[in-house]
Design goal:
The structure holds two protein chains of two kinds.
Chain A lengths: L3 E4 L2 E4 L5 E7 L5 E8 L3 E8 L6 E2 L7 E3 L5 E6 L8 E8 L7 E2 L3 E5 L1
Chain B lengths: L2 E3 L4 E5 L4 E3 L2 E3 L5 E7 L5 E7 L5 E3 L5 E5 L4 E6 L8 E9 L2 E4 L3 E6 L1
Parallel strand pairs in B: 2-12
Antiparallel strand pairs in B: 1-4, 3-9, 5-6, 5-10, 7-8, 8-9, 10-11, 10-12
The chains are: A mainly beta, B mainly beta.
Chain lengths: 112, 111
């Protein structure tokens, strides 16, 4: 009964380094999302996917790239990390028309 | 454009007291509305949701919310707060393929 699993849970990066955050869901959900959470700003959508092989930009996409090569996985990449990308990142998944988002437990990323 | 406003950044209540967290939304069509709770260091957990029908919806942990179209509001209530309810609460509106979240209300419960 895993639901949505995010790896890693914590990471510290130096400015300019790259990394990939992995989100995996075992509920056969069509839609997957990446959000970032910052104090006083709630959750803001970075990118999302409505199916395998598709991606779309959300509210704050700059500096991030995503891929959905398999239905169950949604990867978030930072090519050149910046201190402004220090945040907690949440992945979520759902099915069309359901809006029953299931969230992962988050990845806390610090860029120094 | 869709938006969600939670006017109260932080609320403090005594254990056993009643609670109401405010949420106002802006959306052109009939909204899908949600309340989520986030405990420290955790992900978000769905408390309740409104799609249509009865405007008073019941959720988990004794929470309820009332949809008022005329006021564009979806306030969360609980008759008697428990210490374990201390957390951050987020209101959200579903529009198309996306959710729009409010900035959250942090709840402190005093013993």
């Amino acid at each position: 009964n895993a639901g949505v699993t995010q790896t890693p849970k914590f990471r510290v990066l130096k400015t300019g380094q790259s990394m990939t955050l992995l989100c995996a869901q075992d509920m056969n959900h069509e839609y997957m999302y990446w959000y970032r959470q910052d104090p006083g700003m709630g959750l803001r959508l970075i990118h999302y996917s409505v199916g395998e092989g598709t991606t779309a930009k959300g509210e704050v996409p700059d500096g991030y790239n995503v891929s959905r090569l398999k239905k169950q996985n949604f990867l978030l990449g930072l090519e050149s990390a910046a201190p402004s990308q220090t945040s907690v990142y949440f992945c979520a998944s759902s099915n069309p028309g359901n809006y029953g988002y299931t969230f992962g437990s988050g990845t806390r990323l610090t860029v120094v | 454009a869709q938006s969600v406003t939670q006017p109260d950044i932080h609320i403090t209540v005594s254990e056993g007291a009643s609670l109401e967290l405010r949420c106002n939304y802006s959306y052109g069509a009939t909204p899908y509305l949600f309340w989520y709770v986030q405990s420290p260091g955790q992900g978000l957990q769905l408390l309740l949701k409104y799609f249509s029908g009865d405007t008073l919806v019941q959720g988990i942990k004794g929470f309820e919310a009332e949809f008022k179209r005329s006021q564009s509001s979806f306030n969360l209530r609980k008759p008697s707060v428990h210490w374990s309810d201390a957390a951050e609460y987020f209101c959200a509106v579903g529009a198309g393929n996306q959710f729009y979240f409010g900035t959250g209300t942090s709840l402190t419960v005093i013993p």
